[in-house]
Amino acid sequence: MAKKTKKQQEALKIVDRTQAYEVKEALEIVKKAASANFDETVEAAFRLGVDPKKADQQIRGAMVLPHGTGKTQTVLVFAKGDKAKEAEAAGADYVGDQELINKINQGWFEFDVVVATPDMMAEVGKLGRVLGPKGLMPNPKTGTVTFEVEKAVKEIKAGKVEYRVDRQSNIHVPIGKVSFDLEKLVENFEALADTLVKVKPQASKGIYMRNASVTSTMGPGVKVDVSAFAK
């Protein structure tokens, strides 16, 4: 394990590891504890009362954060004809079909999100073995397989984030940058928490929102009191 820097050791002193803080206070601590010489990403993590091995308890989707993530995503769209023109007009960074598929097969990955029109999925599906492991495969659940390419591109550029429960029942989502105003980080966190409550599977029993924490790229994790969201 890498040795903690002096700044990181100082940051740890600000945090009481045994305490779950209110959202605003937790994020205030994250901002204070950030010590890197770059604008660190702030991430929220939730532990949910679901069994991801069961199909009816898998959680996956996407939402637009009220204040975005602070990072502009590079968007690639697989589309033809009018839909390709629509994607370009909406601000997609790369638009095409077979030519882009060939490029990706040769190891090109200069993009963050992939959108595809449904009629392209037969071809795009062949990229599953290279896009899948990187989490880049378009999926109808996250709104990235759609004929509404203008809407998809604009939402991604506005700060759309994907959420997906992992094998340990956790969800990790970036909610902004350390440089964000505190209120904006709070609103992004609350919007994400509210969305996760709304998508609670009916099959989930017991406490659904078990715990949550917020952290910055290089900073310590800070526990959040989720009782307000634990419906």
TrEMBL record:
Range of residues in the leader sequence? none
Q: Which PROSITE patterns match?
A: RIBOSOMAL_L1
Q: Which InterPro entries match?
A: Ribosom_uL1_bac-type (IPR005878), Ribosomal_uL1 (IPR002143), Ribosomal_uL1-like (IPR023674), Ribosomal_uL1/biogenesis (IPR028364), Ribosomal_uL1_3-a/b-sand (IPR016095), Ribosomal_uL1_CS (IPR023673)
Cellular component (GO) terms are:
ribosome
**Coiled coil residues, start to end:** none
> Which Pfam family, an example, fits this chain?
Ribosomal_L1
Keywords annotated in UniProt: Repressor, Ribonucleoprotein, Ribosomal protein, RNA-binding, rRNA-binding, Translation regulation, tRNA-binding
**Role description:** Binds directly to 23S rRNA. The L1 stalk is quite mobile in the ribosome, and is involved in E site tRNA release. Protein L1 is also a translational repressor protein, it controls the translation of the L11 operon by binding to its mRNA.
Subunit and interaction comment = Part of the 50S ribosomal subunit.
Into which family does the record put it?
A: Belongs to the universal ribosomal protein uL1 family.
What's the protein here called?
Answer: Large ribosomal subunit protein uL1
Q: Which organism is it from?
A: Aquibacillus albus
